Amino acid sequence: MKNVVEDYSKRYRKARKKEKSEILEEFTRVTKYNRSYASFLLRGASKKRKTTSPSQKKGRKKKYDHKVFVKLVKIWEIMDFPCGKRLEAVMDEVIDNLVRNGHLTLTEETKRKLLNISASTIDRLLSSERKKMELKGRSHTKPGTLLKKHIRIKTHYEWDDTRPGFVEIDLVGHDGGSVSGDFCYSLNMVDVASGWSVVAPIRNKAQIWTLKAIIQLRKTLPFTLLGIHSDNGSEFINRHIYRYCEDEGLLFTRTRSYNKNDNCHVEQKNWSVVRRAVGYYRYDTEEEFQILKELYASLNLYNNHFQPNQKIIEKIRKGNKVSKKYDRPTTPYERIMQSPWVDQNTKDRLRKQHEALDIYKLKSIITHFQEQLVNIQIDKSKGGILNYVPLNFK
């Protein structure tokens, strides 16, 4: 039958239109094929049909090749695995910092591609890496009631959220799941206007340690402290801090009872900064306390100078649906430099500090101390806890 089809096909393709009709009639009588199928065979029976495997199929050439992917992953890791929008916003500065300090080598073509890459493409390229990387806190505060009537509840009339200087504070406990005994806490302080955040460890949540940490963190701020906002825990609602704010002329406000969202900025940083950096382990030794101090010293610089954040600039409610519009991801450092409330001398000093920072070195120091904390936990789990000195409360 194959030879018959080929013979008729050769005659059919050489024939004129009228002759083709006669050949087709003859072919259908001989083969008993349907007329349309017979016509299909006669038109292409002698043509060799090319087949290709999926790997041989031609598609659009990849714009971002493996070289770009490797460099993108390295930058993403150094930046602590941010989303595409946040990474795109600082890509230019991060590349310049890494290249200037000798931690990244790029060809002109690769650099151009990295600088032009969109946020959505970053997320798409890194989706497989993110999947490879696929813990709750508990509250340790008790309400302080004696001074509540003296400390005002925060209102939008007293606080200017556009001016650096009004901060929210909170404590994060490092109990490891057991609240018995003494263990370290982290005092987290966040400026509402700029997102500037600083963290310091304290040996426990005694009022004296909390106040000492507040004074210590205040000295590191690149703006004048104007007000402090806390929850209703007794570590904050006490005479030590109340008297300090009165003497220093600081506005001291507190959240409404059972309204956790009143302290939303610092609550969010409790996870994104503190828990993300040091996890949920129990830190109750002097060595761990000292490691936390060293770690936070680098972490504060790393987050404030190189980690962008976004702020809501518009919220629209349509029925049950709320649409939020955010500003461009911007680092706290950039927000401070753009603020008209910060004097030029402070900005000049901050700029010199920023230009001297090595983002890769900061990340390496943070990772080094994180590994030390993990190694101590491993040692503790093997019964080596007796080798560690308890916290010194002097």
TrEMBL record:
GO biological process: any one? DNA integration
Write one Pfam family the protein is assigned to: rve
Which SUPFAM superfamilies does the record associate with it?
Ribonuclease H-like
Q: What are the TM regions of this chain, as residue ranges?
A: none
Give GO terms: molecular function aspect only.
nucleic acid binding
PROSITE patterns, alphabetized? INTEGRASE (PS50994)
The record places domain Integrase catalytic at: 160-340
- Domain of life of the source: Bacteria
What's this protein's name? Integrase catalytic region
Q: Could you tell me which species this protein originates from?
A: Kosmotoga olearia (strain ATCC BAA-1733 / DSM 21960 / TBF 19.5.1)
